[in-house]
Amino acid sequence: LNEMDQKTKLEAEAEFRRKRLEEMKKMVKQDGSESSNSENDEVADETVASEEEEDTESTAKENTETKSLVFRNYMPVSENLKTVVREPAKPEDVIEELRDDIEQATNDDNSGEIDLNSLAPRKIDWDLKRDLQLKLDKLERRTQKAIVKIISERLKAGNNDLLLSAVNSNAEAVVDSHMSDDD
Description:
Layout: H1 2-30, H2 37-66, H3 95-106, H4 116-119, H5 126-157, H6 160-182
Helix pairs in contact: 1-2, 5-6
């Protein structure tokens, strides 16, 4: 595939050159030259060749003019190259700028007011507790409703001894749940 693309590319470029040469020949004929066709062909070929040479020479001159050696980090051994060594850059004087920054920082009014809550480290699971707190509250309400329902059913059944033990166990469960929340 790549070779086919290159061949078609080269063929297209060759065709472009042929058309350009034909146009130049026509221009030479239109200029009113009274010489024969063979002379016109030779003149056209010579003008095309001279233009191409001028193009290559001008690009070569531009390349040599724009590209010059400048050594920044390399110390050349040759005496000829030592003339193009760039002098090391001198650091800028930043002492005054630093003084201004330090004075501005010391004169800040907000420097004495620091919020201790923003500095205190949080527990590792603080975000989990925050996210789950709504669900836990909902479950706590459902648990309390279920306990009340069980107690009311036992009251209706008439088991007073069981009622006393159920109330005591409920009180212990509530105390235990409050103790575990504090941790």
